[in-house]
Amino acid sequence: MRFENIFKISLLLCLCLGAQVLYGQTIVKGTVTDAATREVIPFATIQFGGTTIGVKADIDGHYELRTSQTVSQIKVSSVGYKPLVKSITPNLEQTLNVKLSAASRTLNEFVVKPGKIKYRNKDNPAVELIRNVIEHKSQNRMEQNDYYQYEQYEKMQFALSNVSEKLRNRRMFRKFQFVFDNVDTTRLEGKPILPMYLQESIAQKYFRKDPKKTKTFITANKVVRFDQYIDNDGLNKYMKHLYQDIDIYDNNITILTNQFLSPIADAAPTFYKFYITDTLVSDTGKFIKLAFYPRNKTDFLFQGDLYISLDSNYAVQKADMTVNKNINLNWVRELRVVEVFERNTDGKYAMVKNDIMADFGVGKDNMGIFGERMVTHRNTVAHLHQPDSLYAGPEVVTVSDADKKNDDYWSGNRHEQLTKAEANTYQTVDSLQHMPSFKRVLDIATILFAGYKSFGPVEVGPINTFYSFNPVEGFRLRVGGRTTPQFSKRINFETYVAYGFKDQLPKFYLGTTYSLTNRSIYEFPVRSIRASFQRDTKIPGQELQFVQEDNFLLSFKRGVNDKWLYNNILNIDYLHEFANHFSYKVGLKYWTQEAAGGLRFTQADGPSAGMDMKDVTTSEVSLELRWAPKEQFYQGKTFRIPISNRYPVFTLRGIAGFSDFLNSGYRYQSFTLNMYKRFYLSQLGYTDVVAEGGYINGQVPFPLLSIHRANQTYSYQLQSYNMMNFLEFVSDHYVSLNIDHNFNGFIFNKIPVIKKLKWREVITFKGLYGGVRKENDPAYTTGLLQYPTDEAGRPTTFTLASEPYIEGSVGVANIFKFFRLDLVKRFTYLDNPNVSTLGLRFRFKFDF
Questions:
Q1: What is the pTM of this model?
Q2: Least confident of 186-195, 324-333, 334-343
Q3: Arithmetic mean of pLDDT, 591-604
Q4: What one-character DSSP code corresponds to residue 463?
Q5: Which domain-ending residue is among 114, 147, 169?
Q6: Quick check: is 677 in a domain?
């Protein structure tokens, strides 16, 4: 399977240098308590003496602080207590519990007293304050202005984290010593990082309220490029999908594909605890510092500090947020979000900085990957009317010379200057890519992740299809390949040959795609012509997502699986995608189906009753209309995969079959409408809903009816009926509804012991209702092919009667962070032969 996650691509770089246990660090951890009462002191500040490296204790007083610098003491402080300095031993891991003595002091607005009291919302001034913030959210949004505009600077980077001296001194990295000279010890507290990817852009952005419209002009762009191995534009888009624009005023904030409840969401007092910890006075006004913490440490919630203006706005001046170490979030060792607002001349607060940082890895002390996306705004102007012509055309426009800005331009126009390590990244990575040893390592990593071995203009694979087996072909060997953009950006060739040792027949595929734009055939928006011919086996009605049907792991199937087809398919398609994500595809298809294995094309009645037909041949023309508003892709050089978002996807297909054309014997029309929508339900997770309906007009044999998607493998298929047998049900009219809900641990997170496993609950429902009109039912109409039977003559293919086909499942996802296991139950048509009513199905699923 193709991995559609930027973490895997970033991990490719990590593999190049190898994982290594942290070496030579000072690690101090412990608990901060009140010396008199022995109660824990939440949110105390612990800092290494003589450095800026520090952390806050959590609500239970626990802290952990680390650095690779040489230090000899820590300083512990908290509002209402005397600060304390303690000596430590450098370069060791040690536990140091700290007791602070009370020093109550009166502030202007409130008195801080030591001691711990039972938390409650009622009569809590912190909760009253947050309710005022919630009440004033709408008036504090910039979107309440009719117009506003600003200049935006954006910086995205990925780096290896926890890079140690022991790793640098390894023999295998001797040729890469110049890379380690770029290690940064200041960016991530206690963890040296080595920048490996950097992208910067400057843009002018405009917003209009009515009708709502945004416009972005990218005036400058600069990026570290891995052109030979990674599609940089696709990488950039997926990074933005992980590190989305956030707004503290939204009820839900999406980061790393998960939704976190904002600390100022409408329901925030139900899920968070709030504490007033300080008051601050600056040139711009007076602010309350408000600490917040999740009631349940494993839920998708933040913890941190809010700075609230003490005026009629109750606006957020700053949000500094992280997550609890016990959160049900995979691979993320640290996550920090900082959002800063400044007061405008009209008295409102506009966002000036948005910084998202995450450290990924397996184990807290191993080498990992640090990622950051920082966005800053300046020159924000509200209420400045712009002509409607400015908003015409695409939402994002890149000016012609954006990629040609020189170093002097960047030095003068960056909102924040790069660190020395960041500035050296462009040259360091460029030098690294010219080293043959580095290229060899990346080649190996590409084989492991993508399944293809590159030979410059061509690549061979995928390796997981080289060997498989099935009841028709027996052992099957296959080898294939495709051209790469090094061969040509505009034309692509793809082919494979296969051989079955049981049927002793060769199979093959040959396809070519030509781009009618000056871009890759995979780069949105696509306009291309594709032609292909395939001679191969196929299971009727099986349709797999993003995997090859002859994948070795899918060779293992349950029950009887002997009814196959030999297909000869000639396809010619024209695809046209538009910038608004509407597309159409026109196709011509010449299709010959020959029965294979235990399948027979037998005349049901008439002069040829009981005789087998050689094949079913059709000639078709098709039109597909698709609309996927705001769709994004994980974009590779030779593929792309849609990324699920909150917008619906509509697909309408129409097919017309012609008789007496190239030996085609059937005239019919087929229509299918498919609608997909993901519903985000905040702390309750998300639901994927797929509704589909189809209708076939005309008289056709069963191979041309809608053969409903079944699955007899042991993998769980989202778009298939997992307890339905292959070729079990056919229809000429039907409607279906699939619902897949992921709770994201909402229930398990509340159960002691179980919550430590960080499992996530899933439930599904799948229903199918349809039928076959008498004109297409061989029991009523002469001249049709009889439905397939088993060796005993019992029917194995049926039409849906008065009741729908229904199955459902309950499952556990995130097992070992990789697997989903479903217990699937079939509820109807239990008397059909050779059916399974209950089964376990698994699915590989990579989630944050």
A1: 0.83
A2: 186-195
A3: 90
A4: G
A5: 114
A6: yes
Instruction: Give the other-Cβ count within 10 Å of 113's Cβ.
Output: 9
Label the pairing between strands 368-382 and 285-294.
Answer: unpaired
Strands 26-34 and 93-95: parallel
Euclidean distance between CA atoms 580 and 640, whole angstroms: 18
Dist CA 758 CA 327 (whole Å): 8
Q: Which residue has the higher pLDDT, 612 or 324?
A: 324
pLDDT at 144: 87
Residue owning tokens 């990957």: 369
Tell me the backbone φ, ψ of residue 167, rounded to 5 degrees.
-65, -45
* Phi, psi dihedrals of residue 758, rounded to the nearest 5°: 60, 40
Question: Which DSSP state fits 422?
Answer: H
- What CATH number has the domain bearing residue 772? 2.40.160.50
pLDDT at 26: 84
In this structure, is residue 742 part of a structural domain?
yes
Is the omega angle on the peptide bond into residue 462 within 30 degrees of 0, that is, cis? yes
Which amino acid does the sequence have at 836? S
Lowest-pLDDT range of 11-20, 306-315, 460-469? 11-20
The CA distances from residue 380 to 152, 200, 207, 312, 662, in Å, are 9, 20, 11, 22, 66
The CA–CA distances, whole Å, from 250 to 261, 267, 622 equal 9, 12, 43
Decide if 215 is inside a domain. no
The CATH number assigned to the domain holding 62 equals 2.60.40.1120
Cβ–Cβ < 8 Å for 526, 575: yes
Task: Kindly tell me if the per-residue pLDDT of 775 is higher than 90.
Answer: yes
Identify the residue whose tokens are 């041309």.
Answer: 704
Beta strand 729-731 pairing with 798-799: parallel
Calpha distance 366→364 (Å, rounded): 6
Encode 42-76: b = buried (16+ Cβ within 10 Å), e = exposed. Answer: bbbbbbbeeeebbbbbbbebebbbbbbeebeebbb
pLDDT in tens, 461-518: 888 889 889 999 999 999 999 998 889 989 999 999 999 999 999 999 999 999 999 8
> What percentage of the chain carries pLDDT values higher than 70?
91
Phi first, then psi: give them for residue 518, nearest 5 degrees: -90, 40
Cα(66)–Cα(58) distance, rounded to whole angstroms? 16
Indicate the pairing of strand 616-627 with strand 527-538.
Answer: unpaired
- In a domain? residue 574: yes
Question: At which of 114, 139, 162 does a domain end?
Answer: 114
Q: What is the pLDDT of residues 709-762, one digit of tens each?
A: 999 989 998 889 999 999 999 999 999 999 999 999 999 999 999 999 999 999
The answer to whether the CB of 134 falls within 8 A of the CB of 268 is yes
Using the predicted structure, report yes or no on whether residue 550 has a pLDDT greater than 60. Answer: no
DSSP string across 729-781 = EEESEEEEEEEEEE-TTTTGGGSTTHHHHT-EEEEEEEEEEEE--GGG-TTTS
Instruction: For residue 522, give its domain range.
Output: 451-844
Question: In total, how many domains does the chain have?
Answer: 2
Residue pLDDT, tens place only, 650-666? 999 999 999 888 888 89
* Residue 366 burial (C-beta neighbours within 10 Å; 0-12, 13-18, 19+): middle
Amino acid identity, position 556: F
Contacts made by residues 375-378, CB under 8 angstroms, sequence distance 24+: 375/152, 375/153, 375/154, 375/245, 376/152, 376/153, 376/154, 376/352, 376/415, 376/416, 377/150, 377/151, 377/152, 377/350, 377/351, 377/352, 377/353, 378/150, 378/151, 378/153, 378/352, 378/415
pLDDT in tens, 357-397: 999 888 777 888 899 999 999 999 998 999 999 999 888 99
| Mean pLDDT over the full length of the chain | 86
